[in-house]
Amino acid sequence: MSTSTMTSKGQTTIPKDIRKRLNLHPGDRLDFIIEDDGRVVVHPASVDASELTGMLKAPTKPVSVAEMNQAIRKRGGRR
After folding, report:
1. Residue 32 scores a pLDDT above 60
2. pTM given for the model
3. CB atoms within 10 A of CB 54
4. Do 28 and 51 touch, CB atoms closer than 8 A?
5. Alpha carbon of 61 to those of 2, 16, 67, 68: distances in Å?
6. Which helix (H) or strand (E) holds 42?
7. How far apart are CA 76 and CA 78, in angstroms?
8. What is the pLDDT of residue 36?
9. Residue 78 pLDDT
10. Nearest Cα to 33, choosing from 51, 47, 21, 45?
11. Can you tell me the distance from the alpha carbon of 46 to that of 29, in angstroms, rounded to the nearest whole number?
């Protein structure tokens, strides 16, 4: 477990192993989320688009623009 000490100004240094695990770099922003049980979860506020590579599977069949527009209309999108 990593620990850090808070200064009188409320500042702290995020331990190196945590920065590495969260892929944090100078200037990155963090989100602090308080869970119902009181735990605080910290995670990067933004994700670099390159980190999204491979998240979506390739479509099994090509879809035409007309089919995309039809799906949007069917789900309540603008006409």
Report:
1. yes
2. 0.52
3. 6
4. no
5. 47, 44, 12, 13
6. strand 40-44
7. 7
8. 95
9. 60
10. 45
11. 7
Look up residue 6 and give its two tokens: 């808070």
Please say whether the beta carbons of 3 and 15 come within 8 A.
yes
Extract the tokens encoding 13. 């240094």
Task: Tell which residue, 23, 21, 18, has the closest CA to residue 2.
Answer: 18
Structure tokens at 75: 């789900």
Look up tokens 């099994």; give the residue: 60
Average pLDDT over residues 13-24: 92
CA–CA gap between residue 3 and residue 13 (Å, rounded): 9
The first and second tokens of residue 46, run together, are: 């933004």
In this structure, are residues 32 and 40 in contact, taking their beta carbons and an 8 Å threshold?
yes
**What ranges in 1-79 are assigned the alpha helix state H?**
16-21, 65-74
